[in-house]
Design a protein that fits this description.
About 45% of the residues lie in helices and about 15% in strands. The protein has eleven helices and nine strands.
């Protein structure tokens, strides 16, 4: 079957489960509203509309958005309120309003609601959701201000990123991957070529390997895939097509062609005993060049130097812009 047809048929079947309030229950045929399920479905409906999937004609989208706004503003399901649930409600309502071409004013969504949470919260998930909502509302400067605030809670590592203040809100469908995914979604929309995006992708792929192919749960995996889709589209990776080479002292040590979003990264580990390194003189700086043939900017590269026994070696090493310095190693003797 065709994926869009399957998705369209499934979405159409949900119309019969919508409650008079506009909400959806946790289980089909239940009469009790579930705020979180309603939020997730609102986001799915927005994605469906943005990708010409359809199937939402029988669903009262405006009633759903108004229900979520009442929840976010503490007027309904008060037991459920948190900054996270409010921020997520504002975000999915803004996504669905744009996708369905519904004026924000008709669903009572305004900047002042988002401001209250954004000004007081230090949870990066909440801040990312608020910043994404600001972007949808056309408030780019406010989104950039929040992005700066978010960066104060992050620290780039060699390839990944450490995030503090991302676990103060909780939901039973949350996972460790969510904070990385929401930040990737935000920075992909706000600044696609920012280096932070590559670090966030690395962390998400690392979490996938730990979970043996997925991200802890269906909900977590969905959140990551949504953010990766934003990253792919923002960087036009569907159109990726170039040849790249790595040259050390003018000689190629790695190269290949990268085409399409499924292009695999190239890696090579070179031992210090191999000719490319052993032939270089110590205490001498050599050029390390990354070249490509394409109109697109070269994807991020990474270089690391590791020693098997750091206690027995004294090493001086500097990696700069397109340069690598190979310094002498001295074995210590007892």
């Amino acid at each position: 079957k065709k994926p869009k047809s399957v998705a369209r048929s499934e979405i159409k079947s949900w119309a019969s489960y919508q409650l008079p309030s506009g909400a959806f229950p946790y289980w089909p045929n239940q009469k009790i509203a579930s705020p979180y399920v309603s939020m997730r479905l609102a986001e799915i409906f927005a994605i469906a509309l943005n990708n010409d999937v359809g199937g939402t004609n029988g669903i009262n989208l405006k009633a759903l958005m108004n229900y979520l706004m009442r929840v976010a503003n503490g007027m309904e399901e008060k037991y459920y309120y948190s900054d996270y649930s409010a921020a997520y409600s504002y975000f999915v309502v803004s996504e669905l309003a744009l996708a369905s071409k519904t004026p924000f004013s008709t669903v009572s969504l305004g900047v002042t609601y988002v401001d209250k949470i954004a000004d007081s919260s230090s949870d990066v998930k909440v801040l990312a959701l608020c910043a994404l909502t600001y972007l949808n509302l056309g408030q780019k400067q406010k989104a950039e201000n929040l992005a700066t605030k978010i960066r104060s809670y992050t620290k780039l590592t060699t390839r990944g990123i450490d995030i503090s203040n991302g676990d103060s809100s909780w939901c039973f469908l949350n996972s460790d991957s969510e904070k990385f995914a929401l930040l990737l979604q935000l920075f992909s929309r706000l600044s696609p070529r920012d280096d932070v995006n590559q670090h966030l992708v690395y962390e998400l792929l690392k979490l996938q390997r730990v979970s043996k192919g997925y991200w802890r749960s269906t909900a977590g995996t969905t959140r990551v895939l949504i953010s990766l889709n934003d990253y792919i589209k923002a960087n036009h990776l569907e159109d990726l097509n170039y040849t790249a080479d790595v040259l050390l002292n003018g000689k190629s040590v790695l190269g290949g062609r990268f085409k399409g979003v499924s292009a695999e990264p190239l890696e090579r580990t070179i031992d210090f005993s191999e000719n490319e390194i052993s032939s270089l003189k110590k205490d001498t700086e050599y050029s390390l060049e990354f070249k490509k043939e394409a109109d697109q900017a070269l994807s991020r590269f990474n270089l690391s130097i590791e020693f098997c026994d750091p206690l027995s070696l004294s090493v001086s090493c500097h990696i700069g812009e397109g340069a690598i310095a190979i310094a002498g190693c001295e074995y210590y003797k007892k």
